[in-house]
Amino acid sequence: MRPFPVEKIRADFPILKEKIRNKPLVYLDNAASCQKPQQVIDSIVHCYSHEYANVHRGVHTLSIRATDRYEGAREKIQQFINAQSTKEIIFTRGATEAINLVAQTFGKANIKAGDEILITAMEHHSNIVPWQMLCEETGAVLKVAPINLQGELIFDEFEKLISDKTKLVSVVHMSNALGTINPVKDIIAAAKAKNIPVMLDGAQAIPHLAVDVQDLDCDFYVFSGHKLYAPSGIGVLYGKQALLAAMPPYQGGGDMIRKVTFEETEYNDLPYKFEAGTPNIADAIGLGAAIDYLNEIGMDNIAAYEAELLDYATEKALQIEGLRIIGIAAEKGAILSFVLDKIHPHDIGTMLDSLGIAVRAGHHCAMPVMDFFEVPATARASFAMYNTKEEIDVLVAGIEDLIKIFG
Amino acid sequence: MFDDLRDLYQEVIFDHNRNPRNFYVMEDADRKVEGFNPLCGDRLTLFVKMDGDKIIDASFQGSGCAISTASVSLMTDIVKGLTEVEANKLFIQFHEMTTGKEDDIDLEAIGKLAVLAGVREYPARVKCATLAWHTLDAALKNEQEAISTE
Question: Looking at the complex, does the CB of residue A361 fall below 8 Å from at least one CB of chain B?
């Protein structure tokens, strides 16, 4: 196997040359947001410099160019996740908006008082709160499948919670707080056996795994661009065409209509029905550029390299006395969440920052997960394809030193 | 190593973090208020015993980072014997010191609390230092929060 071209990749990310507090940046907060390669940055600059105008509107050359590039990005996404059609790719602001879209359209149309929505105990707040809001509006009930101390879904319990009342299963593909990769194929099979649609929150999984929505057979898949080396403010809702076609629109406005009179409005075809107003054109194009970049490296190569990083980091971390890893699932992505004896994660975060190391310290928008593990917060090092074992050595040395200074 | 942090993590802070003062449940407290910083998960319960408008005792429980633990530990020490007005004045001075609005802090008035001045260079950590004082402010202001000890 060819060695993973990490040095070549690093050279593409200008921010990795930054000095933080006079030290080389060690960026290990990728689960919060990833850095951007020059190719993505250039695509935005190129868009605004040479091919920017509103899309789907003008007959003039620039508008046609912008529309081609914007729709071209949609095609790249369709191929990247192997959707059947570009009609199934809806641009949103991010995974959060995509989940809210499904809650407010599919949810309101199909979920009634007494119905149930099934999630897991490892969800990000963005896959909890939209359902709580929907339940409050409709009188539906939110059911939560439990996890074990390794941070894995207890599948038997999950299966038991599927009932005739379940109208939607919405689970995270990979946990942002624990790194756990859920057995999504089994989850989908269990739900399909009872004809229940399944949504996967892929915000965390998408930069780490090759995702094939047809192979998964999920009904909805959501993700954000900013965790996929693309700009913030752009994300994707994938939905099976038949489901999307039957759903009422999300927001009203321009572009999502075919014909408007004061008496009635005829909605546009998919995917435009769900894209009211001028979309985030440049960032969608940036997402397309990020996908081109990733395709060149290959998602399977990225997954293999990151697995190596995680194994290395885990092995090193376990040698640190007083360190406890939160989330030790057998199936895990490149996230190392940990706590230290008697040292609060916020102190860890500030101290590592003084060494140029960026980690997240906090509840990771997953407060129920923190409650389950009885910790107020964790420190989290999350890896991307541009991280190296040398950086993990810097992290480990930093942790060892801060333990000494705390005494 | 960590030289840049010497202003933030002074030895006094480590000391209070290791051995927090007044760290117990006060059974006969007149006021008991929960302080919570949802951003970092810091939680503390502040107990205050009053004699008229005078704070005669203060203690706390909870878990937090070194900055927040040291801050509440120092605060429970320093407010003993102060009137509500005096404690409030100190809160304002402390707040100005930590948010950096006041360049020339009255070091004499702020006393031992000056060890926390370093947080002004760390915007993400200011709330860790001020949580204790906001909780005390709530305890002093909000009579409904007072608990009965019978």
Answer: yes
Smallest CA–CA distance, residue B51 to chain A, in Å, is: 35
* Of B63, B67, B84, nearest in space to B128 by CA: B67
Nearest to A6 by CA among A391, A287, A355, A398: A391
What chain A residue is nearest to B14 in terms of C-alpha separation?
A406
Q: Does A23 touch chain B (CB under 8 A)?
A: no
Name the pTM for this structure. Answer: 0.93
**What residue ranges define each of the domains in chain B, with the CATH number in brackets?**
3-141 (3.90.1010.10)
Token digits for A22? 């006079």
In degrees and rounded to multiples of 5, residue A297 shows phi and psi of -80, -40
**Do residues B2 and A401 touch, judged by C-beta distance below 8 A?**
yes
A359 contacts in B (CB within 8 Å)?
none
Provide ipTM, 2 decimals: 0.86
pLDDT per residue, tens digit, chain A (407 aa), is 679 999 999 999 999 999 998 999 999 999 999 999 999 999 999 999 999 999 988 789 999 999 999 999 999 999 999 999 999 999 999 999 999 999 999 999 999 999 999 999 999 999 999 999 999 999 999 999 999 999 999 999 999 999 999 999 999 999 999 999 999 999 999 999 999 999 999 999 999 999 999 999 999 999 999 999 999 999 999 999 999 999 999 999 988 888 888 888 889 999 999 999 999 999 999 999 999 999 999 999 999 999 999 999 999 999 999 999 999 999 999 999 999 998 999 999 999 999 999 999 988 888 899 999 999 899 999 999 999 999 999 999 999 999 998 87
Three-class SS state of A54: coil
Find chain B residues with C-beta within 8 A of A343's C-beta.
66
Q: Which residue in A has a C-alpha nearest to residue B3's C-alpha?
A: A354
A407 touches chain B (CB under 8 A): yes
A41-296 CATH pick, 3.40.50.150, 3.40.309.10, 3.40.640.10, 3.40.228.10: 3.40.640.10
Q: A6-30+299-406 maps to which CATH number?
A: 3.90.1150.10
DSSP, collapsed to helix, strand or coil, labels residue A312 as helix
Domain borders along chain A are 6-30+299-406, 41-296
Q: Which two tokens stand for residue A72?
A: 């071209």
Q: What are the residue numbers of the active site of A? A: 365
